[in-house]
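Give me structure tokens for this 248-residue protein.
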Amino acid sequence: MFRSRAAKSFSYAAATVLDWLLPRQCLMCGGLSGPENLCAPCRADLPRPGRSCERCGLPMKGDDGGVCGPCLRKPPLWDRIWPALTYEFPADVLIHRFKFNRSLACGEVLSQELLRRVKQGLSTGRCSRPGLIVPVPLHRSRLAQRTFNQSWVLAQKLAAETGIPLDHRLLYRVRKTSAQSGLDAKSRRRNTRGAFHCRPERAAGIYHAALVDDVMTTGATLEACTRELQRAGIEQVSLWVAARAPAP
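Here you go.
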């Protein structure tokens, strides 16, 4: 159930007043952007994926949806992926500023794009509606360093707009891992092995969960999280990611 019309009207009115008092500037080009954090041309330049595989999110040829050959031969643990953007310029700039520079304005842009993709996916009726939204957790030491979990921020927006419950305590990191950047796929899987744990009592009665993250590269982190959710009894896992990295 999406947010009520009254709540949306109030939020819109408040934002309109603030935009009149403090005009926004586009996060990318610096020009006036009206009520948004990106001007219309820069928003149009965002790299939204075209036809992509329902399981891995990588591009596919043709017009009809489906599953690519590699995923047919070796399906991933999760059931589907909905990426909002492709991880290339300028989406990569927005994510870097959000993740490392604490730019909540960039996070708002990414949240809006991911919400657009999720609403599009839910409207097709091709999959069941998740019973829970689960953000990919940070280790407590990294959370203290960054001061916030970017996946949690994205998940909060999705939960507020869709009405699907959010549980940031279901999944947690039991050990700190090295940064994934610079590692190949095999090393990334080794790095995340055993890094996550799930509280099974919080998963009771949940059949389908949506796992939320900012970027999917090789999928090693999301694979480790999915495995833990499935061990807790969750049978279907959907990935909702702000950006999907192109194939290497």
